[in-house]
Amino acid sequence: MSVEKAGGRLYSGKRASLPATRQFPVIQKMVESMAHLQEEKLRLQQELLALQEKLSARENEEIAVSVQLQGQVANLKANLLDQAEEISRLRSELGGTDLEKHRDLLAAENERLRQEMKACEGELRALRQQQQQRQQAPCLACEHVQENGRLQERLAQLQREVEEARAKLSELDLEVQQKTNRLAEVELRLKDSLAEKAEEEERLSRRLRDSQETIASLKSQPQQIKYIIKTVEVESSKAKQALCESQLRNQYLQEQVGMQRQVLKEMEQQLQSSQKTAAQLRAQIMMYEAELERAHGQMLEEMQAMEDEKNRAIEEAFSRAQVEMKAVHENLAGVRTNLLTLQPALRTLTNDYNSLKRQVRDFPLLLQETLRSARLEIGQAIEEVNSTNRELLRKYRRELQLRKKCHNELVRLKGNIRVFGRVRPITKEDGEGAEATNAVTFDPDDDAVLHLMHKGKQVSFELDKVFPPQATQEDVFQEVQALVTSCIDGYNVCIFAYGQTGAGKTYTMEGTSANPGINQRALQLLFAEVRGKAADWDYGITVSVAEIYNEALRDLLGKEPQEKLEIKLCPDGSGQLYVPGLTEFRVQSVEDINKVFEFGHVNRATECTNLNEHSSRSHALLIVTVRGLDRSTGLRTTGKLNLVDLAGSERVGRSGAEGSRLREAQYINKSLSALGDVIYALRSRQGHVPFRNSKLTYLLQDSLSGDSKTLMMVQVSPAEKNSSETLCSLKFAERVRSVELGPVSRKAELASWPSQEQLEGDSPGAAPPAARGHAAPSPGPPAARAASIRRKLQTSGKLRPVPV
Ligand code: ADP
Ligand code: MG
């Protein structure tokens, strides 16, 4: 269009200038211009020719280019066709269809497997039910159960494997899906590029047509060639550019095709690997199928075996049930007959039941009635028991009194003063030679008699009992223990150890720690007795330890042992004596006793310079008080056991002792004589007993009077050198003992006890010690008294008189 307009303007400009050149000089000019125009025309013709040549060359070129382009387009078409073919081939060969087919196949297989699995599960469920039934039935063998368990495990494993295969399959499905999508994408892109290519081709062919048309129009309009040439030139450059672009486009498309091919190749490779995997999976699935088949077969076999087993068991059970049924029928028949016989029994039972029901209804009333009567009966019984108890208690008390009376009578008959003699063995202290020879012998047939060789003559003595040197502490205590226990019954008891120093008094009373004497044994016995009576009685045992030295009483358990104690009458008017400030210790065990003794010993030792000497010059007293309470009767008893280790009875005064030694001797003499006097007065039942003549007798007044019991243990040394003292001691013993034999009249005859000197019997004229002071009147001269004693002794029995 623009070309046409330009051509129009060019022609109109030339027509306006022609009339001016045809005028003269204008004509000249016109001729010149004509010539010039002719030249110009020639030049233009030449140019046109050149242009035509150029154009034709260009045309040829264009034709060649279009041919080339056509060739290229044909090539591209062919390529496109090839690609389309390739794509369709690929599609038919490997593409989505195969994968889809494969997927479909897998899906179908999967479905089949699923159905099979369902069937298997159904079978399994049925088998489980059967198994449960069999487990309930007692006859099944557990082998099947185990086999079933194994099969179930296997099945579960297979199911797991199938699950895995399924998972893999679904993965593959996904992959195939992805690949299909990518293929579709590639196809789309290919389609797009084909469409683009077709468009381009279309455009190019259009342009070619345009160019050809232009060339044709140019050919038909040679006058406008100049402009057309320009246009062609312009068009030609455009065509060149378009060609260039289409070449670039073509190149790009070829590159794209190359890339697509590459992608296609990769996809082929992927497809191959997928196919491989699919083949593997298929093989696996086949394997699983075979395994499943096998398991299934096995399961079927097992099921068959189980079925057989079940049938067998059922048959067995059936036959057993038949047998049982028969037995049951038989039983039933028996039961029926029983029922027939039981009916009357049932009737009677019903009657019984009804009567029982009535009884139960009446039971509370009956019970109340019975309880009331039972209560009454029990009350009566209790009353009876109480009255019986009261009667028994009364009888018991009477019996107690009777017992005491009998005891008193017994004591009276036996004498409540008993005299024992104990001869110690010869010791090292006795020395050697004639002086240490044995002067004491015994009667093998009579344990109450002993013989003493004194100054060449044998003197015999009869006591209540004589202990030879070999007698043990235990033997001695055996004879003493009855006295000790009577203290529990409320009697007062005195046990004296009498004899010269070294004769064994302390040994008999205290003994040694390894071999204790009467003191410790008596307390132990008391403890044992008290324990034995603990069910009915409450007992308390207390001890005091005292010493009488030079007529002074001292408390060896007190805080101030040197303090002199006084003996006083009880202010309650009972006439009882007591020692204010005398310490009493409550003892319950041997340990307590040992502590008390030790304490006493320590106190005694601190008060003197020579304990041995001191102890032989003083009386040691262990006072045991036993207080009892009979819980049932409320009866209270108090018994006192006085265990006295007397001072040495040897005659010191005669050996010319002076000063304190003489004083000690006089005090000892006085107290021992006072003891003799008291015993005598008691035995001869005198109205007045001179208790107050010494501290010892005054202190022991309660324990010496009344129905108290006294034991005098006369200790003697068997050594020849001590025979004089032994004689004295034995005479004292015999006289003490002989007192009870005399009639009441003796009161008048033997109103006073002989002194120690008198006891010796070989000094008739000796005067009594100055310190001695009897409250009782002295009835006559000592010689007459001695003669009287001798007379009594002669009349008393087998004893020979002591040679005077
Ligand atoms: P006393 O107390 O009369 O002065 P002892 O009891 O101290 O006399 O005795 C003096 C010695 O004789 C002591 O060594 C004692 O062990 C010993 N003795 C006394 N009697 C016996 C006996 N029966 N058996 C063995 N040794 C005894
Ligand atoms: Mg002694």
TrEMBL record:
* Chain segments carrying region Disordered: 750-804
Q: Where is the composition biased (Low complexity)?
A: 763-787
The entry's ATP-binding residues are G499, Q500, T501, G502, A503, G504, K505, T506
Q: Does the keyword Nucleotide-binding apply?
A: yes
Q: Which InterPro entries match?
A: Kinesin-like_fam, Kinesin_motor_CS, Kinesin_motor_dom, Kinesin_motor_dom_sf, P-loop_NTPase
Q: Which UniProt keywords apply?
A: ATP-binding, Coiled coil, Cytoplasm, Cytoskeleton, Microtubule, Motor protein, Nucleotide-binding
**Subcellular location field:** Cytoplasm, Cytoskeleton
Q: Which PROSITE patterns match?
A: KINESIN_MOTOR_1 (PS00411), KINESIN_MOTOR_2 (PS50067)
A Pfam family of the record is Kinesin
Q: Which residues form the Kinesin motor domain?
A: 416-739
The reply on keyword Nucleotide-binding is yes
What positions belong to coiled-coil segments? 27-221, 264-316
> Which family does the similarity line name?
Belongs to the TRAFAC class myosin-kinesin ATPase superfamily. Kinesin family.
Q: Report the protein name in the record.
A: Kinesin-like protein
Q: Which gene encodes it?
A: KIFC3
